Amino acid sequence: MSSDDWTFVPRKKQGKVPKTRFSSTPPVSIKDATLDSIAKEFGTKGRLWKHSEARKQLHRMLALMKPDAGWQLDTAVCLGTGSFNRDNFECRKRTIEQFAMFVDTLEYLQEQQEEKIKVVVQEGYYNDLDKKFLGTMGMEVPEYEPHVYPILDCGPATKLFGPRTFVCELFIEHTEGTIRALTQKGVKLLMSTSRMMCTRGYQPGETFKEGDHTRLLSAIDNTYRAMRFPYFEEDPNVFEGLDILAPEPQEEDD
To answer: What total of structural domains would you count in the chain?
Structure first.
């Protein structure tokens, strides 16, 4: 597949935005879940992703968007995975598939540089078992209390956002503050629903003010070039709404 088959996201309104999956109460966990059961399910979903055409396309996109000097990352942040041992099968499957993609993409990026990338994973509804699972992978988990309004940014992880950061945001509940945090701190590589949220326009009753979407979208498009996340045939809805954003190449002075 050539780059012409996936193309960059046009700078105009897009289609329907998937609804957020959030609740103000923690999800019910599987009573007999163990580290081994989570690791087993993660391994299964990881193999599904690694054998997918979407993975190949994603790597081609990242190669096309890669800066001339390389990504030069020192930190990777994953936001909004949800619990890995929630009782709801469909939600758990989606969570683990999305996280398997993040981990595999992180490994792909790490292979391209010598400097070790620190990994931080933030989710307000992690339980002790989730944290132990992430600990076995050497990932840091900051304490984060979800749904404390107003939502001004992306929580403790926001301080890590910058020009050497890869951020993978997996369908968090957006406000103007979260979108500004994700897109206006110079993040080097971003997988996010933030741009898609801006393209839908103002919805009465939401936390955005009228006109915010247009201003935010303009700021994003002046900074980043965007590509839609490739179609994942094995589970088509799991990545719908994600964009891949990297800074626009800087033109050299004559």
So the answer is: 1
Q: Does any domain span residue 8?
A: no
Mean pLDDT of each 10-residue bin along the chain, 254 residues long: 46 44 60 92 96 97 94 97 91 95 98 97 93 96 76 90 96 86 93 82 60 81 91 94 87 50
**Neighbouring residues of 6: CB distance < 8 A, sequence distance ≥ 6:** 57, 61, 227, 228, 230
Residue-number span of the structural domain to which 46 is assigned: 33-247
* CA atoms within 13 Å, Cβ hemisphere of 119: 19
Residue 5 lies in a domain: no
- Between CA 224 and CA 246, with CA 77 as vertex, the angle to 5 degrees is 15
Give me the CATH number covering residue 221: 3.40.50
DSSP three-state, residue 92: helix
pLDDT on residue 98: 97
